[in-house]
Write a structure and sequence with these properties.
By secondary structure, the protein is an alpha+beta fold. The chain is built from 3 helices and 6 strands, in the order βααβββββα. Helix content is about 30%, strand content about 30%. It has a 6-stranded antiparallel β-sheet, with helices on one face. The longest helix has 28 residues. The termini are far apart. This is SRPBCC family protein.
Length: about 160
């Protein structure tokens, strides 16, 4: 018997035909990150312990704010932050709710870079938001990895 799929962890990977240094810049430079992710983050920097915030620029989500607390920055290897998963129409008092952990890792692979994103901690989200947050972010990461791939290979 196989174990049921986890509802606590989302993991996605994509091969990007660009050097690790280029993919890292797209991740670690807040302004560049915002360009492909869909948030206005100019004038900010990702650094451990720092809170980075800016308005979402994705159509239909403009009423939301990108709001993360950076955990780790290991140049050209790892960037991680904590945030509240997006659940449109189910916004709650996020100040009292747990944040999930998003971790990006980079590895050299096949003449380019393997970028992996892992988001964990959904089991700490209140049950009435958990499934919607998991489903929304699962689909969201598929699109966001395509966005960073396009961004990193065009510029």
């Amino acid at each position: 018997m196989t174990a049921p799929p986890s509802t606590d962890r989302i993991e996605r990977s994509i091969h990007i035909e660009a050097p690790r240094s280029r993919v890292w810049r797209a991740l670690a430079d807040a302004s560049e990150f915002g360009n492909w992710f869909g948030a206005r983050l100019q004038g900010q920097a990702f650094a451990p312990g720092r809170r980075v915030q800016g308005p979402i620029t994705i159509a239909g989500y403009e009423h939301l704010t990108f709001d993360v607390i950076v955990e780790r920055v290991e140049p050209e290897q790892l960037l991680s932050y904590r945030w509240h998963p997006c659940t449109p129409g189910m916004e709650a008092d996020e100040s009292t709710q747990e944040r999930t952990l998003v971790t990006f890792t980079l590895k050299d692979a096949g003449g380019g870079t393997l970028l992996t994103v892992v988001e964990t901690g959904f089991d700490k989200i209140p049950p009435e938001r958990r499934l919607e947050a998991f489903r929304g972010n699962s689909a969201g990461w598929d699109g966001q990895l395509r966005n960073i791939q396009r961004h990193a290979t065009q510029g």
